[in-house]
Amino acid sequence: MKKILCVFGTRPDAIKMAPVVLELQRRPEQFDVKVAVTGQHREMLDQVLSVFAIQPDFDLNIMQHGANLAQMTTRSLSGLDPILDSVKPDWVLAQGDTTTTFVAALAAFYHQSRFGHVEAGLRTGNKYDPFPEEMNRLLTTRLATLHFAPTQESADNLTAEGVADKDIVLTGNTVIDALLNVAARDHEIPDPAIQEILSDPRRVILVTAHRRENWGEPMARIGRSVRALVEQNPDTLAVVALHRNPIVRETLLPILQNHPQIRLIEPPDYVPFVKLQQKATLVLTDSGGVQEEAPSLGKPVLVLRETTERPEGVAAGTAKLVGTDFDAILSEATQLLTNHNAYAVMAKTVSPYGDGKAAVRIADALA
């Protein structure tokens, strides 16, 4: 029996690792599974754990108000070190590009445990965009034993960097496993603000923006474009999920608050956010995970970034890279809201990110 330590810290990490943890737990004859969370996103992480009924065995709770990247990195490494010393796992698994993921790979290396990288091989080619995620990916690749690539393009990136073919497993993305699981279930939504949005007859434009490279003036341009968009389309309602970071809020609130066609909401729990995506006509986002989720629900995505490590969606036509230019966002969004044919092309394109069986393929490879 193999001892597996699954490590995650943020809400996206938890969403994408939950199907893997559950699949490994379904095979007790093959795997002894332990879960360690760093708490890099405290409240948002706990929400997802509740949805999937995952109880961590270890909780580092590293997040402190105002903590910088160096502090998060060192606290995570110091916290994981005694856990690996105690568990002595055969494999450590983590997903994606967060500080938690890079540190988990480094801790596994220090303990000479094998590391499996879920969602491996994503690249933009610019080590500062997104920051620090792109370098987290590169460093994690150098430390990993097995690379679970979500798409062929990701696998090709790894091959081009010298990773042996035998060490790459093409799986699809686990976010689709999680998404399809939740989307297919009926859920009670206790938040009256979200209930009201879900019952609103207007077309919904769902907006999320939080990335570091968009802080400041780019974020302000996003806000101004959203305001102009709803004012030019009276039958629309913009729903903006405000990130908890005060830098984001200080920029967006003065532009968007108190507008009759704009709803500013706190970051929803995972289930309500899936339901909002199902309700949406159009999604504007700088989030990597949303670029994968929304197309699987048939929703066109405009990516509010200059680069993306998920070019498959752009190539397939489910997403379009528009950056943060005011005119570009307004023009592309208006096109989708007013041109039925343009909308249908994006909405009906098959998502390139998976079939909902990625976790099974990961467990099979580990077995």
UniProtKB/TrEMBL annotation:
InterPro entries: UDP_GlcNAc_Epimerase_2_dom, WecB-like. SUPFAM superfamilies: UDP-Glycosyltransferase/glycogen phosphorylase (SSF53756). Transmembrane segments: none annotated. GO terms for molecular function: UDP-N-acetylglucosamine 2-epimerase activity. The keyword Magnesium does not apply. Keywords: Isomerase. Its EC number is 5.1.3.14. It comes from the Bacteria. Belongs to the UDP-N-acetylglucosamine 2-epimerase family. This is UDP-N-acetylglucosamine 2-epimerase (non-hydrolyzing). It comes from Capsulimonas corticalis.
